[in-house]
Specification:
Bound molecules: 5'-O-[(R)-(carboxyoxy)(hydroxy)phosphoryl]adenosine, zinc ion
Distance between the termini: 29 Å
Strand order of the largest sheet: 3-2-1-4-5
Helix content: 40-55%
Oligomer: single chain
Number of helices: 11
Strand content: 15-25%
């Protein structure tokens, strides 16, 4: 059987990305044009600017993906694109570009869910990983505990009721004077702090035991900082970073391990930008080692937004016959498992 090569596009937030992935597992190229330096000046992603930057960059990013993979259009079997969830104006740039290419080149168009992409980053890093497995998806926009039943088949066991884990990192980082994106900055500063210095709350959510809530931890950090200021005490930013990070990681590990036990997962994966957090990676590894569960964590570059993960997810959708028409639209609130 000949190889299937998919050209994938990702533009749901502040990365313009294109990749060529072979058979869902082999990355032939993975080009990422990050806008972080621009959004940093505003303390977060400005949607309007993100869309305009995608417009400027998408052409060269796609061309670079082809040339780095040493491919011509004839070598590409299908075009894949993230069509949700994400910022609508940002998604539209990728969707419109993918549709134009599919039309002009007469190639199939495969629509991909952004979170399915994050989960599928694990297929690239671990060629032997196959469903079923459990996956904790933690990004700037999402916090989902997912049961991966099969390729393209998911059951959401729990999700956040308020802020996403990455959003909490970004907001706390801003409160202690760190730049956007806050996650990597907190990860770094926390290494100099004491994770036991301040006891921030580990929020429990009434109802579904697998749901998460991070707005309470964020408020507790802000209250702590205000309290110190009122008492005229100097804050120790590294201790705040380390203690906050520990509180978030404890909850993520605890929920994931409980799900592993209840659903008999032998394999647990993590995905999304926050999955590149060094404390989360080592705490989850330790917990899995103790429980005899195989642990999977993509390299940091495959955890944050990229198009290779979209190409990996697209391969299984393509094989299942999933195709979009030229009326494909961006769906900013698309839910996992929905078409
Ligand atoms: O997956 P991603 O690139 O974009 C979304 O789909 O949201 O995730 C971005 C999020 C940001 O909130 C960023 O602060 C967080 O991932 N992040 C981290 C780390 N690296 C990125 N959070 C904690 N520790 C990190 N090392
Ligand atoms: Zn993402």
């Amino acid at each position: 059987m000949s190889n299937t090569r998919i050209l994938a596009i990702e533009s749901s937030c502040d990365e313009t990305a294109a990749a060529i992935v072979q058979d869902g597992r082999i990355v032939m190229s993975n080009i990422i044009s990050s806008q972080i330096d621009i959004h940093k000046q505003y303390g977060g992603v400005v949607p309007e600017i993100a869309s305009r930057k995608h417009m400027e960059n998408i052409n060269w990013v796609v061309k670079a993906a082809l040339s780095e993979a040493n491919c011509t259009w004839d070598d590409v079997d299908a075009i894949a694109v993230t069509y949700g969830p994400g910022l609508v104006g940002a998604l539209l740039v990728g969707v419109a570009h993918a549709k134009a290419m599919a039309f002009a080149l007469d190639k199939p168009l495969v629509p991909v869910h952004h979170i399915e992409g994050h989960i599928s980053a694990n297929y690239i890093e671990y060629p032997d990983l196959k469903p079923p497995f459990g996956c904790l998806v933690v990004s700037g926009g999402h916090t989902h505990l997912v049961r991966v039943l099969d390729y393209g088949k998911y059951e959401i066991l729990g999700k956040t009721c308020d802020d996403a884990a990455g959003e909490a990192f970004d907001k706390v980082a801003r409160a202690i004077g760190l730049n956007y994106p806050g996650g990597p900055a907190i990860d770094k500063l926390a290494k100099e702090g004491d994770p036991e210095a301040i006891n921030f709350p580990r929020a429990k959510v009434a109802g579904n035991e697998y749901d998460f809530s991070f707005s309470g931890i964020k408020s507790a950090v802000l209250n702590y900082i205000n309290g110190c200021e009122m008492k005229g005490e100097e804050i120790n930013r590294a201790d705040i970073a380390a203690s906050f990070q520990k509180a978030v990681v404890d909850v993520l590990v605890e929920h994931a391990m409980r799900a592993c036990k209840e659903f008999d997962f032998e394999h647990l994966a993590i995905a999304g930008g926050v999955a590149s957090n060094s404390t989360l990676r080592s705490a989850m590894q330790d917990a899995c080692d103790k429980a005899g569960i195989a642990f999977y964590r993509p390299s940091p570059i495959l955890c944050t937004d990229n198009a290779a993960m979209i190409g990996a997810a697209a391969y299984y959708e393509y094989k299942a016959g999933v195709r979009a028409g030229l009326d494909l639209n961006a769906v900013p609130n698309l839910r996992l498992g929905e078409r």
